[in-house]
Amino acid sequence: MRPKTIGRTLGIGLRVAGRVAGQRLVAPPPAPGHLAPNQQVSAPVNHRAAGQAAGRATRPLLRGVSGFVRPFAKVGHALWLEIAGVFFLLPVLIFGAAMWRIRASWNHGPNHRVFLISGFIAAMFLYLSITSFWRAWRK
């Protein structure tokens, strides 16, 4: 399934679910034993009012959940940056060891190109690791 199709399907499903929830919130409860389980009320429903009622009913819940999750998200983001910094440090160790093995060829030896490439990759990953730790420390 293409991404556009999935997005449209999910969007339509959410709109339909919102309408159903809004209708159930606004509609008066049926008398006991008056309707069959699969029978619907045939009264006209104002969809805009139903959607607004659903929004008013869920807004405090969303505020409460977002207030509860916000500190965990901040800590989780800092932790993610620190873990990424550690994983960026691993290639530095690997390519640094390769540079140490061929350090005699740094100027004009047979492994001069390997030394330069290893140095470039080690420097790039060292930069990524340091900036990741720095961003985690700033948070």
Briefly, what is this?
By secondary structure, the chain is mostly helical. Helix content is 76%, strand content 0%.
Descriptive account of the structure:
This protein has helices at about 5-25, 45-100, 110-139. It is built from three helices and no strands. It has about 140 residues and is an all-alpha fold. The two termini are about 40 Å apart. It has one domain (about 5-139).
How much helix, percentage-wise, in residues? over 70%
H and E string: HHH
Number of DSSP E strands:
0
Number of domains: 1
Number of helices: 3
Radius of gyration: 30 Å
Overall 3D form: elongated
Q: Whole-number average pLDDT?
A: 80
First-last Cα distance: 39 Å
Low-confidence stretches: none
Q: What does the oligomeric state look like here?
A: single chain
Tell me the strand percentage band. under 5%
Biggest beta sheet summary:
none
Structural class: mainly alpha
